[in-house]
Structure formats: C-alpha cells, structure tokens
Specification:
The protein has about 300 residues and is of the alpha/beta class. The chain has seven helices and 18 strands.
C-alpha cells in the first residue's frame, strides 16, 4: 500500500458538455478522504466551479500528488505530456468513447477513487517519445508524444516519399500515405488501424508502421526502445509531422524527423485488479462470439 494523496488536481475534457456534475462529484470524493482539490484553471472556469481556486499546469506540476483526468484518451494524452516532466501520476475517468487509458467508468467513480486516493492502486509507467524536426541541419521544432509521431502526406495529396534510418543505418526508402512511430501505448491507436501489432504496455519497444506503402511487402517492425529513428523527406511533395495528432508541423524536402524515447514517462494509476487483457477484451470486443442469427449454418 502506498501513501495517501493530499493534493489532488482535477482536469476535465476541454469545452465538453455535461462534465460539471461528475467533476463536482469527484471533488466531493477528494474532499471526503481529507485531500485538497486543485482545479485546473481552464477546467474550473469552464464548469464555473468558482468556489475553488484555479491553478496553472506548472503550478499543479509543482504541488499536486496526483491528477484525475475526466475525459477521453485525447484529453489524457495532452495532460500526460504536460505533467510527465513533473512526475505527477494520472487517474483516468472515461468521459469519451473508447478509453484505453481512461479506464475508470463514470459509474465506478466512488468505488474506484476512494481506495486509490488512500493509496491502494496499481502503477503503470508508459514510454513517451521525444520528436525533433531538423531543417538544413538545425533543430526547428520539438514536441513530445505518448501515442505516436506520424509523418504523412500534406494537403496536396499523393504519397510521401521518405528514407528511414535507425541509429544511422538505412532501413529502407519508401513511398506511402504515412509512416507511424508508436509507443506500446500508441500501438492500440492509429498504428492498430494500419495493421500494426499490439505491444504490451511495459514492453521496451517502439513500433514502426507504414500506412498504405507502395511496396506491398513493407510490413510493421518492432524495434528496441533505445534506438534513434530518423525519417527524411526525399520528395518535392509537401508533408506533415504529427505529434499525438494534437500538434503538427509542415515538412520540406530534406527535413528530418528524429524520434527517440524520452527521459520522462507517463505514470498511470489503475484500481487494484487492473488487467490489460481485460481492457482489450472490453474495448476491442475480443472473445465475443457471433450470435446464432448471424451465423451461417
């Protein structure tokens, strides 16, 4: 059993409707176990919880023991990237659609949160990526990602042409709609829809997945997570680099997107008994058999 939390930050999905009631319920639960509520200022203002002080993300990073995030995986991605340098763990409450990372459901809030806030939980550390764009040999853009960094074709359409190097060694030259560098967490996101494998969350690996490659034999590959991956744009067509699909930067011919494992990790907390395979069964409907009326005789 770990120590109980004393300063608990609350984040809600930006501009979402119908989140005031569950957020206020979470705040009451936090107070019921003797902890202090620290509302993210944007969340506080959105739900008009004026009885609470609002705090900036840096202030929360300095003072909070844990952050509770009410939203979907997209909300969790954004908060996780911001709080990872501060080593603030996260509890995800699902108010979105799929919810791979926000695994506590709304109707389980009281049942799950009380013991977790008192120090009874399971810890799950997730790899982050550091991405850098180099133009003419100089770094011009940096961003982190928890799911993936994607190099894709730009607004003009057509395939993007690129060269992939791993620790300086050329892997291949390719034309494709995109190429994805994903963490184990991101293996159940865009990479999964591009026929990539699912990586167990604690696996020390990175996933490289081409999207609709021109060379049909080009397949996803899993690499050690201590390598540096470089993707160089080799065609005149415009291209884009996306970071968790929440920030992006245009790429020019000759630009290099350099990706490596971050020194920071995102720490997710789960109720005792959390099981990744149960999450896969629930979210991806594994083990569901066709009904008799849909089966063929």
């Amino acid at each position: 059993m770990s120590r109980a939390f004393t300063n608990v930050a609350l984040f809600g999905k930006p501009r979402a409707e119908n989140i005031r009631e569950p957020l206020m319920a979470i705040a009451r639960i936090v107070e019921s176990v003797g902890a202090k509520v620290m509302f993210d200022v944007a969340t506080r203002d959105h739900v008009k919880a004026n009885q609470y002080d609002g705090h900036s993300v840096p202030a929360i990073g300095q003072a909070a023991d844990v952050a509770i995030v009410l939203g979907g995986d997209g909300t969790m991605l954004g908060i996780a990237r911001q709080l990872a340098p501060h080593q603030v763990p996260l509890i995800g409450i699902n108010h979105g659609r799929l919810g791979f990372m926000t695994d506590v459901s709304i109707d389980q809030i009281a049942e799950a949160l009380v013991p977790m806030l008192r120090g009874v939980y399971e810890t799950d550390r997730r790899t982050l990526l550091d991405g850098e764009i180099q133009h003419a040999g100089k770094a011009t853009f940096n961003a982190a990602a928890l799911n993936d960094i994607v190099v894709s074709r730009g607004v003009t359409g057509g395939m993007v042409e690129y060269t992939v190097r791993v620790d300086g060694a050329t892997m291949y030259n390719q034309r494709a709609d995109a190429v994805i560098v994903a963490t184990p967490t991101g293996s159940t996101a865009y990479a999964l829809s591009a026929d990539g494998p699912i990586l167990y969350p604690s696996l020390a690996g990175l996933l490289l997945v081409p999207v609709a490659p021109q060379t049909l034999s080009n397949r996803p590959i899993v690499l050690n997570d201590d390598v540096t991956i470089e993707i160089e744009i080799t065609d005149e067509r415009d291209a884009m680099a996306h970071f968790d699909m929440q920030s992006y930067e245009k790429l020019a011919p000759g630009d290099i997107v350099r990706v490596k494992r971050s020194v920071h990790v995102a720490t997710l907390l789960h109720p005792v008994g959390y099981n990744f395979f149960a999450t896969l069964r629930q979210k991806l409907h594994w083990s569901v058999m066709p009904s008799d009326r849909h089966s063929r005789g």
